[in-house]
């Protein structure tokens, strides 16, 4: 058996609502990885579609957790950050990256902070600017179109964009420091939705699409990012990894749509995990007995 890779997932945790750590941990684990977590905040529910949610900032816990990991000599094959709970956490997570980064460590930053042209309610423009500095330390970043606009300090264009705009945006995002960029929520045809990827080392831009399912589904960005990382760490090239992430996210949305589940609770990713395991080539029938 190959050595099991270890990941540190640095996200918030919503006690109800399938997003952030409640999505990242099971997906990365199902993909075969020893996944540790560092919660950045604890919420009673996620912030989309719910009112009156509780919010506890865990900024003060980040450094002690990092220090303890360091004292144990723990090493990570990947560091994966998402939603951060405060402006101060940007520097703390940047320091954690510096502490645990090795030549073999992949750093992926999902700059979770905005969607549909607006920042999330607990974010500020100051945090958006700071997030660009964190992205500079990443090997790969995974923003959506709204987050890309904030990272680049540009106006959000909505759905009025061209293929040339997407490819220009990818290259400008890469200039922040990451060698690879995957831009989610991209559509170049009315009935298709997916992602665009750019590898600055090869200069190649690639696209991954699947059928569009109408509606807004919470947590799909976290499903997409966690699946993308799963594929990359299972040694798929960027173009194939992006397609796997698009296809699995589409399958999760489809199952949710078919079951007529309440969308604000997130997508039904659990029932699609066998599909992901098969897509990643991890189905070992000898383990089935």
UniProtKB/TrEMBL annotation:
Q: Which GO terms describe its cellular component?
A: cytosol
Recorded GO MF terms: ATP binding; pyridoxal kinase activity
Pfam families named among the record's database cross-references: Phos_pyr_kin (PF08543)
Q: Which NCBIfam families match?
A: PRK07105.1
CDD domains for the chain? pyridoxal_pyridoxamine_kinase
Q: Which GO terms describe its biological process?
A: pyridoxal 5'-phosphate salvage
Q: Which residues form the Pyridoxamine kinase/Phosphomethylpyrimidine kinase domain?
A: 73-263
Q: What species was this sequence derived from?
A: Desulfosporosinus orientis (strain ATCC 19365 / DSM 765 / NCIMB 8382 / VKM B-1628 / Singapore I) (Desulfotomaculum orientis)
> Keyword set for this entry?
ATP-binding, Kinase, Nucleotide-binding, Transferase
Q: What is its EC number?
A: 2.7.1.35
Q: What is this protein called?
A: pyridoxal kinase
